[in-house]
Specification:
Elements lengths: L2 H14 L6 H16 L5 H13 L9 H5 L6 E4 L5 E11 L5 E10 L4 E4 L7 H13 L12 E3 L5 H4 L2 H7 L3 E5 L3 H5 L1 H19 L3 H14 L10 E3 L4 E2 L3 E5 L8 E5 L2 E5 L21 H13 L6 E4 L8 H21 L5 E2 H12 L6 H20 L4 E3 L14 E4 L2
Parallel strand pairs: 4-5, 5-6, 6-7, 11-12
Antiparallel strand pairs: 1-2, 2-3, 3-4, 8-9, 9-10, 10-11, 13-15, 14-15
The protein binds zinc ion (ZN).
């Protein structure tokens, strides 16, 4: 989330929770600084319109005010369900990125008929912003919920920005822990999974043809950046079609992560990272993590579309709400097809995955890959090449012996049509 959105969150919180009459004056000063620095990336008129609307709100506005149904207070938006439950969107800070934006994860609090459930948990760095979000839920929306009152935590999938927050949530509450059975091992044996993952990444990068110096820099960075997470017992593993907690429906959508599951509550669908606005969710080749791969992901896009006709709104774990899950799913599919077509244009000669990714991002997207982005690019393009070989049959490996399980030889790809 960019710094301008975070600054607006703070002003909303100060004005509507802390009842600070000077909240807007402080906002003005901070915005001017950000506008000066980031004017190229900012839609200043739309920020101005939002500030004018916020300024026009009384200190105790009704939650049904248009501004609050769109933006909420500090990003906390209430979604009433026809069946009487309430859902609160609570965006939380997950980790620092750069001077323009940070990584945030959107958690959802479901106040059900008998139980309080949190969907996802953020990272170990999310505690303060979850506390702040719950304060908005209590003070502004009048719902008495503290971390200690949470009965269930449902994880949409086992990626760190979704489960890392168990680190502070589980010791403080008696919450039951729910996750798809394919992701149980990652949550329970995280240290072991991490060290095995490290070996896999090393072999993957060697087969990709990444220069040795880059590999060693990368492995060093990878070793130091991963936080220690002890692992927690999953009390309630679930599978596709299960009804969990208060009859919430599980729709298993593997691809982005093996256990990724969307959860339907009334006419609302929690999407995890299955369908997102602004970006197409990151893909991994299935040879590298089984339950991943573009074929699985495409099947899951179709599956979630087929469940979407009676859904009022899709609520993803990052970025904005998704009013039409099916249209966004089809858009994402066509972005992948475009990427496939672009990769083919550069595959007349045999090339390593490292060369294919570097060429793709450099010449087709205008980006030079650095640091962590480099690994993400190998994974993303690797998932595409695997799909183009196995499912489409339009690319071949020119030295198949390099694909052996323990081989560290560089694999070369070329188009076959
Ligand atoms: Zn995520």
């Amino acid at each position: 989330m960019d710094k301008i959105a975070q600054t607006l969150f703070k002003a909303e919180y100060n004005k509507l929770v802390k009842k600070d009459k000077h909240a807007l004056a402080a906002l003005e000063d901070e915005l001017m600084k950000l506008f000066q620095e980031f004017w190229m990336r900012t839609d200043i008129p739309s920020v101005r319109r939002r500030v004018r609307s916020l300024d026009g709100l009384p200190l105790n506005p009704s939650p049904d005010t248009h501004y609050l149904t769109v933006f909420g207070v500090r990003g906390v938006v209430r979604y009433p369900l026809t069946s009487g439950e309430k859902i609160y969107k609570i965006p939380v800070f997950s980790f620092n990125m750069n001077d323009w934006k940070d990584h945030w994860t959107t958690l959802y609090l479901i106040v059900g008929k008998k139980t309080v459930t949190l969907v996802d948990s953020g990272t170990h760095l999310s505690e303060k912003s979850l506390e702040e979000g719950l304060e908005v839920v209590r003070v502004f929306y009048g719902e008495s919920v503290h971390i200690e009152d949470i009965d269930n935590v449902i994880l949409t999938h086992a990626h760190f920005d979704h489960f890392g927050g168990l680190h502070y949530l589980l010791p403080r509450s008696k919450a039951k822990l729910w996750v798809h059975e394919w992701d149980v091992k990652t949550i329970e044996d995280f240290p072991k999974e991490k060290s095995q993952g490290r070996e896999q990444i090393l072999r993957f990068l060697k087969q990709a043809g990444m220069p040795a110096k880059r590999i060693s820099d990368f492995m060093e960075m990878h070793g130091s950046s991963k936080e220690t997470f002890p692992g927690y017992p999953v009390t309630h593993p679930f599978k596709d079609g299960d009804r969990i907690v208060e009859n919430y429906q599980v729709i298993h959508t593997p691809g982005h992560c093996p256990g990724l599951s969307c959860i339907r509550v009334g006419d609302v669908m929690f999407l995890g990272d299955q369908v997102l606005n602004d970006v197409s969710p990151h893909q991994f080749p299935k040879i590298y993590t089984s339950g991943s791969g573009l074929q699985n992901y495409f099947n899951s896009l179709i599956k979630i579309s087929s469940h979407s006709e009676t859904i009022r709104v899709g609520l993803p774990s990052h970025y904005g709400d998704i009013p039409s899950i099916e249209s966004r799913a089809m858009e994402i599919m066509s972005e992948h097809n475009q990427r496939i077509a672009d990769i083919m244009k550069d595959l007349d000669q045999p090339k390593s995955l490292y060369q294919v990714s570097d060429d793709y991002y450099r010449f087709r997207r205008g980006r030079e890959l650095r640091g962590y982005d480099n690994l993400l690019a190998q994974e993303e393009i690797g998932a595409h090449l695997e799909f183009m070989i196995e499912s489409m049959g339009i690319v071949k490996v020119t030295n198949p012996e390099a694909l052996g399980k323990n081989s560290e030889e560089v694999v070369f790809y070329q188009k076959s049509i």
